[in-house]
Design a protein that fits this description.
Distance between the termini: 50 Å
Largest sheet: none
Helix content: over 70%
Low-confidence stretches: 431-437
Order of helices and strands: HHHHHHHHHHHHHHHHHHHHHHH
Number of helices: 23
Number of strands: 0
Length: 447
């Protein structure tokens, strides 16, 4: 298929427009060019120079860009407005309608060769796929967006890289997610590309995989750097996401009041921006905070609200993840039957490739509930399934805890050697304070 700026394509375009306006080749050519030149151009035997195209466009009464590319005047601006509309639709929780909008924009941007608009539409489709839990499609869309931006600067490619890292994280591929974040941060900082929004997006995103890998010191450092970068960012939605992510690192450090303050800031920004998905995630994180602080009644209230909001927006994967944390709170409140029923319901929506960490958490909790019922066989089955999922994901901290639970179960049932093996496995997964298995930390920005 010929490109829109090929000589043959431009030649046919010039001939069609000239004919529509009832002009002869001489009338189009004069006074700067000859009829023979116009004839050669329309036949596609010569590539017109920019001055020639500008002259012809003026004679035809159209803009230079419209003649050179075939795009109607103002078309790129119109696509930008429609992209913004689709992004607002996604923020409101209407993922399916947003995906339809992004798909139409992508097709039209491809037709007219608008690369930046293609990339943004693909980013939007990737975010829609994350919402529905279709992680394979999300990875593909973010990869395609990055490919479209192959000639752009690294800061411009960061949203696509962050999308890929998020999809791999949700699929349980923690190490690869951290690699994407860290290698990009290192390249940005070592080469002096200190774009505040790009850095803030990366430091905010890397906190969750750090935490799940047991790299708490590195998560805390990323949180501090994100907080320092926030005043330089001009994107309130990005700042709100930062506050929500930073809260998790603060909770792990026991900084409950600071975490609560960060979540309050995030919630207020999301309310102002009317971004309902992220507002639901704030309720989710606030429920987690109350659970860590032992206030299970308030934790249940926040998590039920988060689940209700996410379910209404058909954010299937996130809804299932919240349900697992709600089940943990229900169990702690003595509502074990309701918790078990909820866990069995969501396990059908989770897998090793889709929500691996929360699938493991569901099996772990079902194991604990089975132990409470004195059903050692069922407990062992759930613990072993959880162990397999966590080993695949490389979630060191959770692995150590699970090995302790499994070892205790073996010891209580008289299997001492099996218990010792489980304990040794857990000790092998426990990382030392302040270190990770990820290699040297990436270079830091000058703050």
């Amino acid at each position: 298929m010929a490109e829109r700026d090929d000589p043959e394509v431009i030649g046919r375009r010039v001939q069609q427009l000239r004919t529509e306006r009832g002009l002869t080749q001489r009338q189009l050519a004069e006074p700067a060019y000859t009829p023979a030149y116009i004839s050669t151009l329309e036949a596609g035997r010569v590539r017109a120079s920019e001055p020639a195209l500008r002259h012809i466009a003026e004679r035809l009464g159209i803009g230079y860009d419209e003649l050179a590319t075939g795009r109607p005047a103002g078309f790129a601006t119109e696509l930008r407005l429609r992209l913004t509309g689709a992004q607002r639709t996604l923020a409101s929780g209407a993922g399916e309608a947003a995906a339809e909008g992004f798909t139409v924009v992508l097709a039209e941007a491809e037709e007219y060769g608008l690369v930046a608009e293609q990339a943004d539409a693909l980013l939007g489709l990737g975010e829609c796929a994350l919402e529905t839990g279709d992680l394979e499609t999300a990875q593909l869309r973010f990869e395609q967006a990055e490919q479209r931006l192959g000639d752009a600067t690294l800061p411009a490619r960061v949203p696509a890289l962050r999308g890929r890292a998020t999809a791999h994280y949700l699929a349980g591929e923690l190490r690869y997610s951290c690699y994407l974040y860290e290698s990009t941060l290192d390249e940005l900082n070592r080469n002096g590309m200190h774009d505040p929004d790009a850095l803030l997006l990366l430091y905010t995103g890397v906190i969750a995989p750090y935490m799940d890998m047991g790299a708490h010191a590195r998560a805390a450092q990323a949180a501090e750097l994100a907080l320092a970068l926030a005043p330089q960012s001009g994107d309130p939605a990005l700042v709100a996401r930062m506050h929500r992510s930073v809260a998790r690192a603060m909770i792990a450090e026991g900084r409950i009041a600071e975490a609560d303050a960060s979540l309050a800031k995030a919630s207020e920004l999301y309310r102002q921006l009317q971004i309902r998905t992220e507002l639901a995630n704030c309720h989710w994180m606030r429920g987690y905070l109350h659970a860590q602080n032992g206030d299970y009644a308030r934790a249940e209230e926040e998590l039920r609200e988060a689940r209700r909001m996410l379910s209404a927006k058909r954010a299937a994967l996130y809804t299932s993840q919240v349900a697992v944390e709600l089940a943990d709170v229900l169990h702690r409140r003595g509502k074990s039957e309701e918790a078990a029923e909820l866990l069995h319901e969501v396990l059908s929506d989770l897998s090793s490739e889709r929500g691996a960490l929360h699938s493991a958490a569901a099996h772990r909790l079902l194991g604990i509930i089975a132990e409470d019922r004195r059903d050692a066989d069922a407990a062992e089955e759930h613990y072993v399934r959880a162990l397999s999922l966590l080993e695949r994901a490389g979630a060191a901290g959770d692995l150590a805890d699970l090995c302790r639970l499994l070892g205790d179960l073996y010891r209580r049932t008289g299997r001492v050697e099996a218990a010792l093996d489980a304990y040794r496995t857990g000790l092998g997964h426990r990382t030392a304070p302040g270190t990770t298995t990820l290699g040297p930390a990436p270079a830091q920005p000058p703050l």
